[in-house]
Design brief:
single chain; mainly alpha; globular; disordered N terminus; disordered C terminus
Amino acid sequence: MDRREQSYKHKTPNVENLKERKREEDIAIRKDKREKIISSKRFRLAEGEEVTEDITIQEVSEVTKQLQKHGPHRKQNLQTLRQAFSQGTLYIDAFFGVENALSCLVGVLTGIDAELQLEAAWCMTNISAGTHEHALAIVKSAAPYLVTYLSSSSPQLQDQCAWAIGNLAGDSKECQGLLHKQGVVLPLVQLLQSPSSAVAHSAAFAVSNMSRDSRDISREFVRAEALPSLSTHLTRTDNRDVLCEVAWALTYLSTCEDNAERLVAGGLLKQIVELLVCLAGNQPHDGQVSIPYLYVQISKRQLHIVRIQYGVYFLFVMLTSAVA
């Protein structure tokens, strides 16, 4: 009997350990999924295009050399390079291994051929998704032009430059700071109001990465009226990609308490709750869109006010989510 009791006593902590381990694994899985959602946006492919390994590193070097010669082949050269860059950092290294490669690419970006400009910006978008050294080289050589072209008359070029800036800002505090010095805040806020959903999507991506871990920059975005611009997208539930990017932007902007107060005072938090109610009724439930909105932060005092004013919405969201 004593032996059985002793055996039973030893099983209890093991069960608890297993439960704790399972909880930790679940948290790790959710974190990994969230990081993949964010990181999957970094490399950019054409619609319907898939990452292939048909291009060799030797071909990247040869195409980079060809790009430095003027001719009708340059557009195809750029398309080959931006596809190769999406295969991984070794292909980006091969590009940088060719003398004057980056200065040539910057020259194409600042040229007068609109098609080549767009392809050059696309190359920079994918280079920026590489290592820190790759991103730093782009931000030091091309940041002023990328920021300038956010105000271009071409929505396609605006979209591509905003995506590139999002990648650069997401790379490091150093790149984030260099972009900030170039005056990137106001043009990005203006792009949030673009009638093009693709442009608004890329602008929100850039705003979220520019605001991440930087209270000073997030305050500047709010002073530039980023919150009203973001709020206009909360009623457009048909575009999940834009909703998801707007959610992350609001999440990082709300980490500063001053900004959080504006979320409540401007009625933006009420809009978020109403959006969650709408999303909770969707089947199947779309966690990639709704979960980021749950990270929007407000103070305890503000939360008490919101509970009184909008408590019924929170209750409805919780109940409908549980049923789903």
